[in-house]
Write a structure and sequence with these properties.
alpha/beta, 2-enoyl-CoA Hydratase, Chain A, domain 1, seven-stranded mixed beta sheet, globular
């Protein structure tokens, strides 16, 4: 009953007397080392009013978090990539989960905060068996046609069409878009782009240690 009352409250009222965690803790929620993973749920709980975050459908498509929170007593819905699962990549189930959640938000005029950290959509033969293109297209269609405000924070990876899907179809679509200091942007992740762009230079080096050193340098400079 307490959970039902809490969930209904997101759609009904502004809460007074709110409290929140010291927001300076957010500085340490996303590691400076881009190769280190982190807990997206801890970011959401820190942003939200104390005790206000409720995750929906937690057992389905864990790489996409759909959460109802309050900030300064006001209801706000959150979609977020989980970098600990598939590196934050969006698979068919995650696209479906986010699309249905956005429909719920739009129906009740609840604003949405998108916490983006994705290398893009999942690819490959196994992924195609899940009708991934159809499901990912649904996320674009729902986001573009939603009338509720969408805000976006890019915590780390903002790559490819997956990042576009997290921002309502375009980086120009949200009411605002901002980046954490750790934000990265591009058509694809640097670890994937460097072997494609510098394949000849890398293959010329027969010594594996020298090749690895050059690869790391190119990734850092990309």
């Amino acid at each position: 009953m307490a959970l039902a009352r809490k969930l209904l409250g997101y759609f009904q009222c502004l809460v007074s007397g709110w409290e929140c965690t010291d927001q300076r803790r957010l500085r340490h929620r996303v590691p400076e080392n881009r190769l280190r993973s982190y807990d997206m749920w801890s970011v959401i709980e820190t942003l939200a009013d104390t005790g206000s975050a409720t995750q929906l459908r937690a057992q389905f498509a864990g790489d996409m978090l759909t959460v109802q929170i309050r900030i300064e007593g006001r209801s706000l819905d959150v979609i977020a990539n989980d970098p600990r699962i598939l590196g934050g990549a969006i698979d068919a189930a995650a696209a479906d989960k986010a699309a249905r959640f956005l429909q719920l938000c739009d129906a009740f005029d609840l604003p949405v905060l998108s916490l983006c950290d994705t290398p893009g959509f999942m690819v490959g033969p196994e992924t195609e068996k899940t009708a991934h293109v159809r499901h990912s297209s649904r996320l674009f269609a729902v986001a573009v046609n939603a009338s509720t405000p969408l805000f976006c924070l890019v915590l780390r990876k903002g790559y490819g069409l997956g990042a576009m899907a997290m921002t309502g179809g375009s980086f120009h679509a949200p009411s605002f878009i901002a980046s954490w200091p750790t934000g990265e942007f591009g058509g694809m992740g640097s670890e994937g782009a460097v072997p494609l762009a510098y394949r000849d230079e890398l293959e010329k080096l027969e010594d594996l240690h020298e090749r690895k050193a050059l690869f790391d340098k190119l990734v850092n400079d990309y």
